[in-house]
């Protein structure tokens, strides 16, 4: 049953938000592949904690649309499409957004 539920459970967002969620997810994956969610120095799109500013905005919006459940769903897709290292960076970049825990 857990296997079946993992693959076929309902998506954690409404049909009305589907287009926005997928657009945010595509942007998030692109950032992870082309830029990175973290930097060694602040500035140029990164905040004072060296976290990608747009990545944090996306995380906040995903939280507004579906809470931590939607953020976890998006995180799993980032991990699958961008890889484990970018996903670990995203994990830190989203720290302090809605009690985020992957």
Topology, element by element:
Blueprint: H1 2-8, H2 18-34, H3 53-82, H4 84-93
Helix pairs in contact: 2-3, 3-4
Mean of all residue-level pLDDT scores:
91
Main beta-sheet strand count, sense and barrel state = none
H and E string: HHHH
Cα-based radius of gyration, to the nearest Å? 14 Å
Binned, the helix content reads 55-70%
Whole-Å distance between the termini?
A: 22 Å
- Give the overall shape, derived from the CA principal axes: globular
| Category from helices, strands and their pairing | mainly alpha
User: What fraction of residues sit in β-strands?
Assistant: under 5%
Number of separate domains: 1
Low-confidence stretches: none
User: What is the tally of helical segments?
Assistant: 4
Number of strands: 0
Describe the protein's architecture and organization.
The chain is an all-alpha fold and 102 residues long. It has one domain (18-93). The protein has four helices and no strands.
What's the short story on this structure?
With about 100 residues, this protein is mainly α. The chain contains 4 helices and no strands. The mean pLDDT is about 90.
Please give a handful of descriptors for the protein shown.
single chain; mainly alpha
């Amino acid at each position: 049953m857990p296997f079946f539920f993992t693959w076929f459970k309902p998506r954690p967002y409404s049909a009305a938000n589907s287009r926005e969620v997928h657009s945010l997810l595509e942007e998030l994956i692109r950032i992870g592949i082309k830029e990175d969610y973290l930097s060694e120095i602040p500035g140029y799109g990164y905040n004072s904690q060296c976290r990608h500013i747009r990545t944090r905005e996306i995380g906040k919006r995903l939280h507004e649309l579906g809470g931590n459940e939607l953020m976890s769903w998006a995180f799993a897709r980032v991990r699958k499409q961008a890889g484990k290292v970018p996903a670990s960076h995203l994990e830190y970049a989203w720290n302090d957004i809605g009690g985020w825990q992957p």
